Amino acid sequence: MKIAEIKANQGKIDIEAAVIDKSEVRDINKYGKNLRVSTAIIQDDSGKIKLSLWNNEIDNVNVGDKIKISNGYASEFKGEKQLTAGKFGKLEVVGKASEEEMKASEESSEEVRTNIPSQQESVPGITGIEEDNSSEDEEW
Asked: Among residues 20, 4, 3, 23, which one has the least CA distance to residue 103?
C-alpha cells in the first residue's frame, strides 16, 4: 500500500516509508495511565502522512529510518489523516532510508508539520497529566 491510498478510519494498513521528521515527546494521561507520544512524518514516493509514535516506539524510531507498519490504523485529526500501529499492529525499523527516500523540500515538510499538537494542546480522548477527559471509543 502507498501513503496516497490511505483513507481516514481505515485499518489493516501495511506500509513501508521513510521517517523524515519527528516532533518533541509529549507526556499525556489516557485512561489513568501516563504515556509518551510523538508525531513523526513519514513519506514514500506517493506522499507524506503523520505517524503517531507511542512510548517505546519513540525511542526506537528516528529521522532517517525506514519503517514498516503491519496492520496499522489511520484516523483523522483536525482534517488530516494520521497513521498509528495501534494496539493490534506492529511497527518495526527495517533499515536506513536511502537519500532518494529522504528527499523532501523543507516547505512541504513544514506544511505537514503545522498541525502537530503541542505539549499544551488538547487531543480528543487525551489530556495533560493533571486531568483525564478521555473517551473509551478512541482507537489508540
From this structure: 20
* Domains of the chain with CATH codes: 3-113 (2.40.50.140)
What pLDDT digit, counting tens, does each position of 22-53 carry? 999 999 998 899 999 999 999 999 999 999 99
pLDDT digits (tens, 9 = 90+) for 70-98: 999 999 989 999 999 998 999 999 999 88
Q: State the Cα angle at 68 between 66 and 74, rounded to 5°.
A: 115
Torsion angles phi and psi, residue 131, rounded to 5? -150, 165
Dihedral of the alpha carbons of 107, 102, 117, 111, in degrees to the nearest 10: 20
Question: Which pTM does this prediction carry?
Answer: 0.74
